Amino acid sequence: MATVDMIIAGLNACLTGNSNAIRSALDTMVAHEIKTGNHTVAAKFRSVLESHENQVISSTRRTYAAKKILRSDTPKGMSEQVVVHGIDSMTLEKCVLDVVLKMIKEHKNRERLQSYNLDPHHKILLIGPPGNGKTTLASRIAADLGVPFFSVNGDVLSSLMGETTKNIKEIFTYSAKAGGCVLFLDEFDAMGAERSGKHSDVGEAKRITAFLLTEIDALPSDVVMIAATNHQELLDRALWRRFQIKLELGMPSHEQATVFVSSTGKRHRVEFSPRQILRIVKHTKGKCIAEIEHVCIEIITDMAMSDKPDLEMSVEKIVGIMD
Ligand SMILES: Nc1ncnc2c1ncn2[C@@H]1O[C@H](COP(=O)(O)OP(=O)(O)OP(=O)(O)O)[C@@H](O)[C@H]1O
Ligand SMILES: [Mg+2]
Predict the structure, then answer these.
(1) Model pTM?
(2) Which of 39, 126, 181, 205 is the most buried (most CB within 10 A)?
(3) Residue 10 beta carbon below 6 angstroms from any ligand 1 atom
């Protein structure tokens, strides 16, 4: 059972109302119970922790969650999501992280820039193969800025003449009115394909692109527009030029995969040994981060469900023995 020191730390955290300390005390208790084989007690502490975590969404994020309930009138093809986790829990290349943090800093200090007649960068293109974090990064930028995350999906596109531009107009107007948000345009190549592309109706594709250009140029700088594509070569060149920041989220390097496996384990209260990490990384070589995550989850699930949990055995079962 949890030691007296742990219980005292938990009680102190509750009495002072320090939510981070409450979470940390509960975390320590869960880890202690797992270590001493008391899985039932660990599960009980964990359920307290989870209900607590639902309540410690930061106050800004809670404000936006409240706003979301009021906003039931989102335009066609757009949805609002409340994001709790920030960028710090992602695995990103340092050069990518640096650019993103710089952009966030600009937004948080926008008055400084405005005193020089400058605006923060707010038009970002995320490029890269599936499953390496484009959508995740966009949503977590919103969380770190403490603003709503508006995500636009394929429903915005319509085969009816003029309907797509109408939907786009509504989305951009809505975002501008919201005053401070992240507008995420997923699969942007489908919306902003090269004007000379092989469209069934080239005229309509040209109109959509021209319309998008006008909307993007008029977008206020407190709307952070983030577009994502797996095929930047399909984008219209004029549209492509509008993005002030272009970031590539490529397949993970060996180092990135190593960090990711270790942090995924920790997120689920499992400490993979360096040798186990190496095995998982070798097994998933050439795979995207989402696939690496899937393998880690399979291992941890297998361990959690076995009567005699043994991490080594579960690693072996899922990824095999390393040669
Ligand atoms: N860099 C990363 N750091 C942490 N988790 C990641 C990262 N990349 C991917 N993931 C995990 O993989 C899942 C899928 O990633 P995500 O949907 O963001 O990829 P994507 O690049 O948007 O893919 P697609 O092109 O298919 O839309 C995420 O929910 C997250 O759990
Ligand atoms: Mg995506």
Answers:
(1) 0.80
(2) 126
(3) no
